[in-house]
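Hi, here's the filled form for the chain we discussed.

Project: internal
Contact: R.S.
Residues: 165
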Amino acid sequence: MNTRGATILQRLPGGGMVSRIAPLLPASAMKTFEMRQPLATHFREIPCEQAQCSHQAGGWITGFSDIDLPHKWDAAQTYGAIATRRGLRFTVTRVDNTVTFVFAAGQRCLEGHRVSVDRMPLYIARGGDWRGNPRHTGRVHTSAEFWREDWLETQGCFERLQQRG
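And the returned structure, exactly as it came back:
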């Protein structure tokens, strides 16, 4: 078991890192509460015109510096390939160690715009924490009130345990 105050450095699936406080209890003793609004079910895409996109209205410039580094050069090439596949008009200039993409006005941007579909979030309570859900328990509450009640009951259990010592 980790000592109080210790931190854990965890690698994320996308390659990034996150520092977490080392838990004092096993994941099976934890419960996680979250509200989710997945992009697929709670948002819809809208065109640049509807979003009043400044990139579409006036064009935009994107640059990559330090392209002598392999990962920066790869990123610049990938960006150009994506823009080409989407049929966007642009010019590319390279000055010293910087590549600049200039996109003309009047075309959709690369960002993608979304708006909420005014759907209630998913109110989720599940066993475990960021380490997993070893008991495979959980539920999606039908309302915020039930989710809050579940959270308050769980919080009350912890307060009673803390009072016992």
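Let me know if anything looks off before we file it.
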